[in-house]
Request: fold
Amino acid sequence: MSDDRKCECGHTNPIGTVLCESCGKPLLMTDAELEEADNFPSMRYEGMARRSKTYSRKLVDKVWNFFSSVKIAVIIIIITLVMASVGTILPQKMYVQVPLLDEQMTRDYYSGTYGLFGDIYYLLGFHEMYNSWWFVTLMAMIGISLVICSLDRIIPLYKALRKPRINQHLAFYRGQRLFIPLPVEGAKELDATMDQTKGWLKKRGYKIFGEGTSILAEKGRISRWGPYINHVGLIVFLLGVLLRGVPAFHIEEFIWVREGQTVSIPGTKLFVKNLEYKTEYYAEDEYVEELGMKEGMVIPKNFQTDVIIYKNENENLPGAEPNLTQVKEGPITVNHPITYQGISLFQLDRREQILGALNFTLIDMDSPDSKEIGEVKIDLFDPSSEIKVGENYVVRILDYFPDYQMGTDNRPQTKGVLPNNPMVAMEIVDTKTNVLERVAYVAGGFVQQNENTPRFQLATHMPDLIDSSGLIVRKDTMLPLILFGAIVSMIGLVMGFYWNHRRIWIHMEAGRIYVAGHTNKNWFGLKQEAKFLMKHLNLSNDLVAVQDKDKKKNT
Amino acid sequence: MGKEKRIYMRIGVLGILLIALVFAIYSSISKPGLLKVGDEAPNFSLKDREDKNVTLADLKGKTVILNFWGTWCEPCRNEMPALEKIYQKYKSDDVVVIGLNVGEAKLTAEQFIRQVEVTFPIWFDSRKEVTKRYSVGKMPTTYFIDKDGVIRVIKTGEMTERVMEQLLSETKQ
Reply:
């Protein structure tokens, strides 16, 4: 190898160098091979030694080399894409509408709904793919590959571009895809007007390097950094996504809050109280055009929950009575959350017209004057066991079943906690005389103890109907970082797409002048530039056209 | 850059990336807040049947069988007599059974207690905060907590007396 390192120009290059850092002569080729213009090495990375291509004995180097390969990166990305799409064939567990409380239920759901395929899908763990260790590993490997690929390329590239290639070996110019040996008379002309030509190039936005007879005009070097800036952006993006895994940076929960209820906001020391929920509808005169809607049809205009946010001053011990101080109050509408210290509550769902409380009027048939004693309100979510009515009456609640049914053992029971079919067993007492009578409210009617001559009666009124709001609790501290990464990545893309790195060399050697050109993209544009240059020198366009012979693309 | 320096650079870069990888995997697999066997049982404070404040920490030094139940849950009802038997049998042995009612009105729960005739302490998790903290989904769910306050067994579903005995002896080991 040591033979290859020393170039004939006297410069010693690092191992793995393709084009001599100093004179640009291909190091790994014989002079005979060089005669064939097609053989010229790729100009990518400027023919510099790439770290990963050199040492590979140590484990560290092997790992490094593995991740520095773009081929490997592409394979990882393809595997990730394929697996990610496999994960969309059946619904992920988190999106299954049925509650799946344990593994057995989950397996039964997948095999029951999707048959053998579902069972295999479950057994392979595809039902919770995106959080599985191997999927995360794939994603992380893409990230690692991004970092190492970038480092492995940007350092030599930076070194090469920092030192513009001037006065190169003739083989270097001859190897370029755009290579124009000028006719002798043109050479004289150019030599005489070199300063003018330089000025012409400068006007066209080129930076000129070099003196006298060998110059380099360079433009749009920024284009070469584009991919790396793009990668830095992607890495920042991935880092942000990664840090969302820390609970302090990311909360996503869902809570139901009934009107009047105060609920703890999960993962925080905050509580939220639902003051009022309302759905507003468009009035008929608000329609821009006749919609031909049927009678009674409505279109909702607004879904709104008015809330108060409290902070718990006590330690957040589950179940313990909180000590609340109000910190914020305001409305939540769709897409307009209420936010306190980075924690946002979004309007997502609602249940309207839930039975909240039963309303009765107590009637005492034996009362001498007014038979109507007073109002009885029974809160169906938090019933009190004794309700005082009027001066000397008490309604005691003996039993309460929110969703009443008769159990298999012939005992009354409740199907759930929501008051869908409330049954209330009461005892009505006249405390003056201690006369006592029992009455049960079942399925909208009454069962009286004294069926024929009840002394106490309850007259039913419109029950309290309340609404419940489904709110999303969201905290996403890393979102600005993710956005920043995305913007940087976009800047990188724009730099890479909309600029191109053009270099035009003018080289005089042994009485002849050679023009060579290289660009990282848009060869058509470079050729146009070369044609303009020829025109400027009063030379024929055909000199450039000749270049259109199918030279291998040395980009 | 010397060869030595390069190796250290590479080890450094790969090391940082490895840490990021491990962190990514850890944070995706670990479900924050989800209790496992071996974790310390988080303390909580609730009201008992007499409306007195009670906390789990009060029971330190005792083996605790923490049973989450609801009146509407058939298997909960079924296992109540067995729980009562275990409570009576091991009461003198520093074992406490706590029935933790999940989010129901006290009135509803009380009549259920009268029906199933249990005498062990019943605590009321009216705001379901404890239920959430203990990630109770399917009911009944029973936590067996040892003398040091460490969760030894998490059992979902109905248990027979024999199963309870067995899980209790596992907890006491």
